[in-house]
Amino acid sequence: MADLDQWLGIDNRQALRAAVDGWRGVLSLPQAQQLTAHAAGLLPAAQPLRLAIVHTYTSDLLQPWLDLQAALSGLALHAYHAPYGLALQEAAPGSALVAHQPELTLMLLRREDLHPDLALPIVGLSDERRASLRADCLASLRAIVGLFRAQPVGHLLISLLPPVSPPSLGLYDAQSAASEAAWWSGFKTELGQWLRESCPATLLLDLDDIALQVGRAQFFDRRYWLSARFPFTAQAAHELARRVLAVGTVLKTPKAKILVLDADNTLWGGVVGEDGFDGIALGPDYPGNAYVEFQRRILDLQQRGFILAMCSKNNAADVTKLSGLGVQLTRRAAK
């Protein structure tokens, strides 16, 4: 693999992480282990991060991917895997998990852990039963989270494993009154509201989004699931580890709050002082639409709390005019 040979020659951790994260291929486990060893030896020295994992399916096979992403992020990971199953005794003073003093605790739960009825399709249930089942599942998860939240377990990440198979009603699910997708969407909305309003330092790590990103066929490995109760392909395990360690990185490193941008060939294509307003690339057609899309993404970051600033040698009036035009185009594109 040519990419691996090139990566092993990179002696800057940030550049190495950017190269790996931007690659579209899939790493094998031996390749991941080689990269981990290389990244762990780069400067500056890694900061320690203590992670605890509570799991109702196998978590040990996720460890190499967690180690890789930790090394790429400049973190020395110290992980504790709780006993297999919903080990509520770990949410007690003096437990091994509490003694580990985690800064981040990851809960890998299955949907049926919330209620045994979720092991079966819910499309056959009455409207009343589906509503009461959602309430029961929310109450169950609140109780579980409350037990762990009462202990010093650090920041808490909650995840629910999506089903291995598609919805029971197939293509008809989207328009069915008993849609499984709609039921789960409503459940996650209510769960998110509770976490936001009543449960600080707790985050829903949405595995549905990872499955959507990589695709169902690339998310699940049925061989591992049936033989070892480990659901993920290498691609899904890597992406899950990347998201978990992204939270760990935020906890351990300084937070970026300001995004400073150049103008020419950044917010638009070309040099406005030389090409003029009509000569730069910024509009609905290529390549101008690429810059409009970039500005749209910048606005997303602003909504997440980033402060936007510009550093440019352009004429101030030209920059102000073009920046306003870009905002108009991005808003128009978003409609």
What are the salient characteristics of this protein?
Rossmann fold, 2 domains, five-stranded parallel beta sheet, two-stranded parallel ribbon
Give the N-terminus to C-terminus distance in angstroms: 43 Å
Q: What's the CATH C level of the largest domain?
A: Alpha Beta
What would you call the structural class?
alpha/beta
- The low-confidence parts are none
- Any guess at the CATH architecture of the largest domain? 3-Layer(aba) Sandwich
Quick gist of this model?
This protein is an alpha/beta fold and 335 residues long. It has helices at residues 2-7, 13-21, 29-40, 63-72, 96-100, 127-149, 180-198, 207-214, 216-219, 222-228, 234-252, 272-275, 288-303, 316-334, and strands at 47-55, 75-81, 104-110, 155-161, 202-204, 258-261, 307-310. The protein folds into 2 domains: 2-252, SGNH hydrolase (Rossmann fold), CATH 3.40.50; 258-334, HAD superfamily/HAD-like (Rossmann fold, 3-Layer(aba) Sandwich).
Structure explained in plain terms:
This protein has 335 residues and is an alpha/beta fold. It folds into two domains: 2-252, Rossmann fold, CATH 3.40.50; 258-334, Rossmann fold, CATH 3.40.50. It contains 14 helices and seven strands. Helix 4 crosses helix 11, helix 8 packs across helix 11 and helix 13 (288-303) crosses helix 14 (316-334). The radius of gyration is 23 Å and the shape is globular. The two termini are 43 Å apart. The mean pLDDT is 92.
